[in-house]
Structure prediction request, 266 residues.
Amino acid sequence: MTVPLYDSQETGTALDALGALSRSLPEPFLLIGGWAVYLTVNESFSQIHGTPYLGSRDIDVCFHVDPEQAVDALRTSTFAQALKVVKEAGYRPHGSYRFCKMIRRVDGTVLTEETAKGFPLHEIVYLYVDMMVDNVHPRHKHVFRCDPLDEPIAAQMFIDGDFVKQPLGDFDIHIPNPASLLATKLRSIPQRQQDDKLWKDACDIYSIIWHSSEDYSSIIRKVRKEYPGDCTKARIAMTDEVAGRAAYHIGIERDEFTSIIDLLEG
Prediction:
């Protein structure tokens, strides 16, 4: 039986917010992270397990930035436009690249930092949006007054248009192809602490390999060819403990999980 990592109200709120926000963001952008995995694997996963794939609490969106463009062009780039959209949608800065909206669980009221002080933490849903770029412009911090969060793997996808269009309700959204999406997860998991994000990355890696519409052998072949070092580091990060925890949440035996993960090293 699948065991969710996160509270269903949190993930449901995040999915609803993604649907609303994606309609307002300037194109082109890529949805990456946990919700991109969800859209990639959910159909197959649901058929086999009888329940939707694990949801996420965060929304990760990535925009193309030309590191050689003029500063004036950077100020009007899709990333700059997206920052305005996110702020106008009620998300407030929470660190360098992360934005947060606080929502009261009982009635969906959007809270300010001041009004949130009147409620216990368990009565609030914290909805996060991570704003990412594929390339870091040398003047990024000067223009946006914050450090960037970058996902270099996305750069070639923007150049080649090598992404997948997936329906999100009545709206189509662009997500990475399975091999590229897997590569982002392989790169992130060695950096995780021993917490829910580590377990979620492990679940995502297994599910992208096994539940994508593209054949798993094709996905494995691509990542082993293009990202051999990341494959090795990710496999090392998925210890027996991590494998056991991920298998528990997916709803499979640990040996079944490791048999798929072991494909990363051939």
User: Anything to note?
Assistant: Strands lie at 30-32, 58-63, 92-93, 98-104, 110-111, 124-133, 163-168, 171-176. The longest strand covers residues 124-133. Residues 33-49 form the longest helix (17 residues). The chain has two domains: 1-176, 177-266.
